[in-house]
Amino acid sequence: MLGNATPMTLSPGIASSNCNVSFEESRVFLVVVYGAVCALGLPANCLTAWLTLLQALQGNVLAVYLFCLALCELLYISTLPLWILYIWKQHRWTLGLWACKVTGYIFFCNLYVSILFLCCISCDRFMAVVYALESRGRRQQKTAILISASVFVLVGLVHYPVFQMEEKGTCFETLPMTSKIASYYYSRFTVGFAIPLAIIAFTNQRIFRSVKLSVGLSAARKAKVKNLATAVVVIFLVCFAPYHVVLLIKAIAFSYYQGDEDSVCAFEGSLYTVSVVFLCLSTVNSVADPIIYVLASRSRQEAFGIHKVWKKWSTKTDVTCSKDSEEVQLPMSLANGHMSPRPVHAPES
């Protein structure tokens, strides 16, 4: 490795030899990207959370998922200054063991909560577009709230073992890999990436097909539905695919070398910079997710006009009237190609 190669401090229970990795190659890049994500993601997700909350109060289904996604991103962004400090100090964690565990726990949870909410958004759009009539009355906000709560609980429980891990010096950078970590990488790739990828690919392919066959949607409406679906797919692939592919490559290499310590160390050392850069890329999701809200809104004026609805709601006026004023008649394609109008709310396309 070029640059300053530093022996990685290992956790108790990890093999005794050190793996030489270069922290200097990626340090400036990581600090700049994490800093930019923090500076841009904080206001963007605050605004998104506020606007989607207002729309959720009107009974909007999609807004529930977007609101939860924004909250998740805000929680993660709040930990980025700690990661920046950690990276700047040559990957030496000086803030205490529990601070490391909580920060790592938030990172892992955010990663897979974000992935699952992208799946939820894709499935919701799939039902609203492909099965427009069949889903009427079934797409309820209570269901969206229950699904969102289940996502948080499920991901939180799955990553609870993070608090049982021991760290010394570094924070969740255990080199060389062990068989347990290799198995964990295989599981994360399969359950946390491959299955969601299949869901997102299937639902959005059907959305594109339905929009293409539609004869009642205007060109502008078709473009809006397509842009939202495209944004979900692109964000998923750009932010999450590289990191999970690296995890899979690492696990395969461990299996190929049959756990040989020196070979695994050499391989992981050569891949370290690429690995942390792709890990950093996954955080760009925190800035990209608000784009989904922008594409889901019918217009830029709507995003700011929603405050009028909040003012009426806060003064205890008739919320139903406000809700009806935000509805539009949007013809959606059916399986047989015919059209049927149905009301949709602000962030739905």
Automatic annotation (TrEMBL):
Membrane topology: Multi-pass membrane protein
A GO CC annotation given for this chain: plasma membrane
One record GO biological process: negative regulation of G2/M transition of mitotic cell cycle
TM spans (from-to): 28-50, 62-85, 105-133, 145-163, 183-202, 228-257, 269-296
Database matches in Pfam families: 7tm_1 (PF00001)
Keywords noted in UniProt: Cell membrane, Disulfide bond, G-protein coupled receptor, Glycoprotein, Membrane, Receptor, Transducer, Transmembrane, Transmembrane helix
Main localization category: membrane
Domain G-protein coupled receptors family 1 profile: 44-293
Gene3D superfamilies xref list: Rhodopsin 7-helix transmembrane proteins (1.20.1070.10)
Family: Belongs to the G-protein coupled receptor 1 family.
Record protein name field: G protein-coupled receptor 132
